[in-house]
Amino acid sequence: MTLRDPQGLDDLLNYRLARLHALSGAPVVRLCEGRYGITRREWRLLALLAAQGATSPSELAERAHLDRARTSRAIGSLAAKALVQRVARPGDARRAVVQVTARGQALYDEMFPQVAAINRAVLAALDEPLLTALDEALQRLTAQAEALGGRLAAGVQADRRRGGAVRR
Description:
62% of the residues lie in helices and 14% in strands. By secondary structure, the chain is α+β, with helices and mostly antiparallel strands. It has 2 domains: 117 residues, Winged helix-like DNA-binding domain superfamily/Winged helix DNA-binding domain (Arc Repressor Mutant, subunit A); 42 residues, no CATH class. Helix 1 crosses helix 5, helix 2 packs across helix 3 and helix 3 crosses helix 4.
């Protein structure tokens, strides 16, 4: 297996990261859905709102790396569960921000230590030097991916309804 010169799917960085995400995220999904009745996407939005405070749905979608439609549906679901609320901005009732309710904050406060414990259990496979190296590698890879995304995607817009990309 080689990351630098992939010969098959198992050699691709994104595939391996997606597999790790699926495997390490499974206990979080069971915790979210089985114990607390929320999806992992709802948990992500709730955690972001609890950490950063009230924000617009568009800003929340960007921060969560989700499209606006999925974010809107998840916000609606969280609002129906009384975990978040939409609040009109003063002077412009058409533009609202989303904020965590007291019930949502209590859920976050209860869940976060459990999710953090799952994270620590996964990372227990690494000693401190490897963990430090992984952290640095992830920072570098993230920066590289951001730079590449801006260069490689120029002039190409995804059209998911038709299953591909459209050249402009």
